[in-house]
Amino acid sequence: MSQFILHKENTRGHANHGWLNAHHSF
Fold it and tell me: Is pLDDT above 60 for 6?
C-alpha cells in the first residue's frame, strides 16, 4: 500500500495509467 500512495503522489494523471499498466502486467 505504501508504494501505491507514493506512486499516487508522484503521479499527476496520465502517469497513473502507466503505473496501472505495470501493475496489471505483474
Answer: no
Quote the CA–CA distance of 12 and 26 in Å, as a whole number.
Answer: 22
pLDDT at residue 25, rounded to an integer: 57
pLDDT in tens, 14-25: 555 666 666 655
In sequence order, the 6+-apart residues with CB closer than 8 A to the CB of 19 are: 7, 11
Residue type (1 letter), 10: N
- Is the distance from CB of 16 to CB of 8 less than 8 angstroms? yes
Please name the residue that has the C-alpha cell 495509467: 17
